[in-house]
Design brief:
Keywords: Signal. By secondary structure, this protein is of the alpha+beta class. 18% of the residues lie in helices and 29% in strands. The chain folds into two domains: 20-324, Deoxyribonuclease I, Chain A (4-Layer Sandwich); 340-416, Immunoglobulin-like (Sandwich). Strands 1, 2, 3, 4, 11, 12 and 13 form a seven-stranded mixed β-sheet that branches. It has a six-stranded mixed β-sheet with strand order 5-6-7-8-10-9. Strands 15-21-20-17-18 form a five-stranded mixed β-sheet, with no helix packed on it. β1, α2 (40-51) and β2 form a beta-alpha-beta unit. α2 crosses α3 and α2 crosses α6.
């Protein structure tokens, strides 16, 4: 009997050890980083620090520099190393070029390939991942990120349908067995009867997709769906600039943002949806037609988080959690982030701002050293017991530079424009 109990204990221990979670988040980051307030990369950092997404999907990214700003600053406090997809410019609207991007935890995911699905209105990006389990028995994850046409009216609904169809047609080309699929984005759907939403759920699709929350109905301005509303985080756009750059007001009353998933997340023993984890992040379900940080919108999500969400975007993120039911094949590692990190963009023509852990500096080791690509020391910056250090780049020539500190293997790279 003792042997049976011991064996059972060991089996349960292995099972517990083998389970990893994968946190997914989709976020419309609203014309990042161009819209007010300034330094939204730091606001986003605080939001991501709280949720810690392993797969971070976004839309309304303005530039490749903005993608690096998120990677190097907003994700700087994550325990594991992160990477991003290749930036491929969306040329559909050159006057307002906003597009999608994914960032991912490299300990849990490997990006194998990516491609662009052109549509009538805006490109949709497809990212092909493998979950880092036994490479002899891979788990395939296909991720589609979209920003569908906005506004009401039959022409806009038809355009959203046409964009969705580009994804559902692409599902026919996913031939690996048991491929898992996520389709995320700002879909701008007003209700579950919309033809685009119904097309996503069409059971005849090559891979069946489902809405994890399974909440059909008319979502707009409906108190029954207050817990799902993602726009707008603001009752008024006053204070966020002018015109379209200020974003939408009116308070939370629309479910525009979604993460849809393939049905096999509910049936797989290897990679599965964690019931009850899908939510409009920051929505305490009592904020209909109010700002997300309204004093009366109390609940699970703190006022600090809701203030950050209010300032970051006119949308709330959508989050969902999955479980990886087998051990990861890559070794666990933590990145060297104990010395310094970027608090500004690493592409600049004015200044660079570096955050440092001052506990690693003293009177003998109190400087940052900037080198050019020839290995020549071009600038020395004193730390002076400051946790945030800004230095001018105006006197540097155009090109790439490296920042080092004694006693650390960390090397930060920046580009002087």
């Amino acid at each position: 009997m003792k042997k049976i109990i011991t064996g059972l204990f060991l089996w349960l221990s292995v099972c517990a050890y083998s389970q990893e979670t994968l946190n997914a988040m989709f976020y419309n980051v609203f014309k990042f980083p161009n819209s007010l307030p300034q330094n939204r990369q730091l606001i986003l950092r605080d939001i991501l620090d709280e949720y810690q997404p392993d797969l971070f999907m976004i839309c309304e990214l303005a530039t490749e520099n903005a993608a690096d700003l998120i990677l190097n600053t907003s994700l700087q406090n994550q325990v594991d190393n992160y990477n991003r997809a290749v930036f491929v410019p969306d040329l559909t609207d050159t006057a307002d070029p906003l597009q999608t991007m994914v960032f991912y935890n490299t300990r849990k995911l490997t990006l194998v390939s990516q491609q662009t699905l052109p549509t009538i209105y805006r490109d949709i990006n497809q990212y092909s991942f493998q979950v880092n389990v036994d490479p002899q028995n891979p788990i395939y994850l296909e991720v589609f990120v979209a920003h569908l046409k906005s506004s009401t009216g039959p022409a806009n609904r038809q355009m959203r349908y046409d964009m969705v169809e580009a994804v559902t047609q692409q599902l026919q080309n996913l031939t690996q067995p048991n491929t898992h699929v996520l389709f995320a984005g700002d879909f701008n759907f007003y209700n579950a009867t919309e033809i685009g939403y119904q097309k996503i759920l069409d059971p005849t699709n090559a891979i069946k997709l489902i809405d994890p929350i399974n909440a059909p109905g008319s979502w707009q301005d409906n108190p029954s769906f207050s817990y799902l509303h993602t726009q707008s985080t603001r009752l008024s756009s006053s204070g966020f600039g002018g015109g379209a750059n200020a974003g939408a007001g009116g308070g939370l009353d629309d479910r525009f943002d979604f993460i849809m998933m393939s049905e096999n997340f509910n049936t797989s023993s290897r990679f599965s949806y964690v019931n009850g984890t899908y939510s409009a992040y920051g929505n305490n379900a009592n904020c209909l037609n109010k700002s997300v940080n309204d004093a009366t919108c109390t609940g699970t999500y703190s006022l600090t988080l809701r203030n950050n969400l209010y300032n970051m975007s006119d949308h709330l993120p959508v989050v969902v959690q999955f479980q990886i039911n087998e051990p990861l094949a890559t070794p666990s590692f933590k990145k060297d982030k104990t010395f310094m990190w970027f608090e500004s963009s690493n592409i600049t023509d004015v200044e660079v701002i570096i955050g440092v852990d001052i506990s690693h500096f003293n009177t003998q080791n109190n400087k940052l050293y900037i080198y050019n690509t020839l290995g020549q020391l071009v600038k020395t910056v004193s730390v002076n017991n400051q946790s945030s250090i800004a230095f001018s780049t105006e006197n540097l020539n155009t090109g790439m530079y490296f920042i080092k500190a004694n006693g650390s293997s960390t090397v930060l790279k920046f580009i002087k424009k």
